[in-house]
Each structure stands twice: as C-alpha cells, then as structure tokens.
C-alpha cells in the first residue's frame, strides 16, 4: 500500500484569527533559505525584511513578531510571504518552526512570549 504524506499547511499552523484583513500582512523575506510554514519570524530593523527570529543579535530579528502562513522559497532572492502579524489569533505551538539558534526550552519560551506580546497566542491544544 502506498503511503502519501502531505507537507504542513496553513490549517496546521493557524487555528483562529479575528479577521484576516486585520491580522495578516504581506512581507519580504530575506534571501538565503527556504522558509517552512509556521516559521517564527523577526523583522530586521535596518531593511524592514524578515528572517527566522534568532535567539541573539542586535539587528531587530531577535524579537519574534510574526508567523509565516505559507512556505516560501527565498533561497536565491528575497521573496514575498504572508504572515499573521497581530492578534487576536491562535497558532498551534507544535507547528511552529524556529531558527537553529532557538535550540532549548528556555529560548522557545522566550519566542512564544514575544509572539504573545503582539497578540499571537501559541496553544498546545490548538
């Protein structure tokens, strides 16, 4: 029997939002990698572009401010993406993808707290 696997989708990440016209934004993702659905993103202050939120640094991207709703391949050049950028909204904690520097429970908890600060509520039971 053939087993089919489906990549994560919007419905795996976003569980509730008050109004898509209010909670979502179209943003520019920094070139250099493919971004998976559920990427936890920070905004680079100098350029206004987004990248995976890091656990340290001083470029502004160390603060999580958005969650990517659709996978985007920005390997070769900057690319557009759609994010949930404010709440009230609920995302599935299990579906979130982090930068490699966010590699332990304390750093993940920090990123989740930063999302809560902008109204994006990560939930285990979502």
Kindly list the characteristics that best describe this protein:
single chain; 126 residues; alpha+beta; Virus Head Decoration Protein, Chain: A; 3 helices
The low-pLDDT segments are: none
> Mind summarizing the main beta sheet?
5 strands, antiparallel
Total helices: the number is: 3
- Tell me the radius of gyration: 14 Å
Mean pLDDT: 95
According to DSSP, the number of beta strands is: 10
The total number of structural domains is: 1
Identify the CATH architecture.
Answer: Beta Barrel
Residue fraction in strands: 25-35%
Terminal CA distance reads 31 Å
Write the layout of secondary structure elements.
Layout: H1 10-13, E1 14-17, H2 20-23, E2 24-29, E3 33-35, E4 40-43, E5 50-52, E6 64-68, E7 72-74, E8 79-84, E9 89-92, H3 105-117, E10 120-123
Parallel strand pairs: 9-10
Antiparallel strand pairs: 1-9, 2-8, 3-7, 4-5, 4-6, 6-8
Describe the structure.
This protein has 126 residues and is α+β, with helices and mostly antiparallel strands. It has a single domain (10-123), classed as Virus Head Decoration Protein, Chain: A, CATH 2.40.300.10. Helices cover 17% and strands 33% of the residues. The protein contains three helices and ten strands. The protein has helices at residues 10-13, 20-23, 105-117, and strands at 14-17, 24-29, 33-35, 40-43, 50-52, 64-68, 72-74, 79-84, 89-92, 120-123. The protein has a five-stranded antiparallel sheet with strand order 2-8-6-4-5. Strands 1-9-10 form a three-stranded mixed sheet. A two-stranded antiparallel sheet has the order 3-7. The longest helix has 13 residues, at 105-117. The protein is globular. The model has no long low-confidence stretch (mean pLDDT 95).
